[in-house]
Amino acid sequence: MITQDKDKYEEELSHSISYLENLGYSNIKADIAGFETPKSYLKKGSNIAITPDIVAEKEGRKHIFDLSLKSQKPRLLKSKWLFLKTLSTIKSYRFRLITTRGHYKFTNETIEDINLDSIKLLKI
Q1: Which residue in 30, 31, 52, 32 sits closest to 41, CA to CA?
Q2: Which CATH number is associated with domain 3-123?
């Protein structure tokens, strides 16, 4: 999710974190109060910072998770996902999207728009 939507979807983020803990993920970093904030990446030439929603480890491998929820700025969300997918490919991480009921259609349409059909969805 993008920075403008963080306050709106804080409950979904905390629910996703507890879901990941139940799946056995450890060393969870999240962009929410009470957790260590994941590393941010600055876009050159502007002051836009990209921060993954959740970063966790499982079986010695890092996983990057981003919440896929309806947004007023889908273009910014698409560029964030493309960057995170590229970063995870370069660093041999795993990139997954977490979506909830009511947001499946938006998520699938957005993924098709940017041709990232290889991304796995976690449906909560």
Answers
A1: 52
A2: 3.40.1350
